[in-house]
Amino acid sequence: MRVLAIPQWSFGRDKGLLREFGEILDAFGLRIHDLRSDVDQNRTISAFSGDPVRVFEALERLGVAALPRIDLQRHHGSYPRIGALDSCPLIRVPDADGILPDVVLERYIDRLAWVLAEVYGLPVFLCERSDRGRREGEIPDLFRQGFGMLLERSIEPDYGPKSAHRHLGVAVIGERDWVLQASVRLGTPDLATAKTVTKLIRELRREGDPRFLGVSALAVSLASRDQTQVSMILTLPDLTTFDPILEWMRIEVSKLEVSMAGAELVGPIRERDVSGAARLAIRPEQIVDGGADDVRV
Questions:
Q1: Axis crossing angle, helix 242-255 with helix 191-206, rounded to the nearest 10
Q2: pLDDT in tens, 205-218
Q3: DSSP conformation class of 95
Q4: Which of 59, 187, 203, 260 has the most CB atoms at less than 10 Å from its CB?
Q5: Contact status, residue 46 vs residue 268, Cβ threshold 8 Å
């Protein structure tokens, strides 16, 4: 039985910490699917899978390494954030031994949330399949407001204090279904161009275009590269795939007299989804075997 963790961290310029992350995950014998930092976004994506006990022990150890070194009061990056450990989705992956039962994963998640709250004073919100009756839209509203706004309001987390940590913000963790994430770099530093593309995506999604069902997009500046980025998330990967979106984007950005400078998968992908992402750069280690079936116990 395996668990896939995809924690996203608000640091991207500490190469030593990134190396330490790799060493920690190796020491726990986990399979690393993705581990990368971005200087402009000041953000690190990590994705790893393995035995549930080792996965959650590694998550706690990563927190020991990272959280004392992150101060969102001094953080500058182009990607929106609400916490030092911004989000930590978890996915159960079937293997020859079956799939981890709901109740067991819930215990692990509760343990991690308790540690974050008790050791670091970090408010923790449980989300997605781990949600326990929270008002619809409450967590998306946290992300829309961002870290700065959270400091000015009272909150109702599942664990921890009712105010955001002054340096670490809040954390959102929980089991979720598969989603896919990709980044498309545009050969222009003009953020307005990327925002035009994301606006068109939102409009087509609202109009019911089947290519954009469950697709969200965000425009991000990549100042050090004189580029911008459209970051996309597919929340319904069984219904939508990347290739039609990327072909549409190629046509649209050419109308704006801009080129696509590159497109790559961010985080893990199921084997079954690879055929619909031929236009993306995908590394072999990003492919998670045994993740084809959405099995609940």
A1: 130
A2: 999 999 999 999 99
A3: B
A4: 59
A5: no
Tell me, what amino acid is at 184?
V
Q: Please give the biggest Cα pair distance in the chain.
A: 53
Question: In the chain, what percentage of residues exceed pLDDT 70?
Answer: 97
DSSP string, 254-287: HHTT--EEEEEEES-EEGGGGGG-TTSB--GGGE
- Helix, strand, coil percentages (3-state) for the chain, rounded to 5, are 35, 25, 35
Per-residue HEC secondary structure of 238-262 comes to CCCCHHHHHHHHHHHHHHCCCCEEE
Phi/psi region, residue 101 (left: phi>0; alpha: psi -120 to 50; beta: rest), is beta
From residue 250, alpha-carbon distances to 45, 52, 102, 133 in Å are 26, 41, 42, 41
Does the global pTM surpass 0.85? yes
DSSP classification of residue 30: P
DSSP readout, 173-218? EEE----EEEEEEES-S-HHHHHHHHHHHHHHHHTT-GGGTTEEEE
Pairing of strands 124-126, 171-175: parallel
Q: Report the C-alpha gap between 34 and 234 in whole angstroms.
A: 18
Helix ranges, 8-101 (H): 15-27, 52-66
Residue boundaries of the structural domains of the chain: 2-175, 180-288
For residue 205, what are its two tokens?
């999604």
Report the CATH number of the 180-288 domain: 3.30.70.670
Contact between residue 10 and residue 20 where contact means Cβ atoms under 8 Å apart: no
Residue 270 has pLDDT above 80, yes or no: yes
Q: What architecture is the 2-175 domain classified under in CATH?
A: 2-Layer Sandwich (3.30)
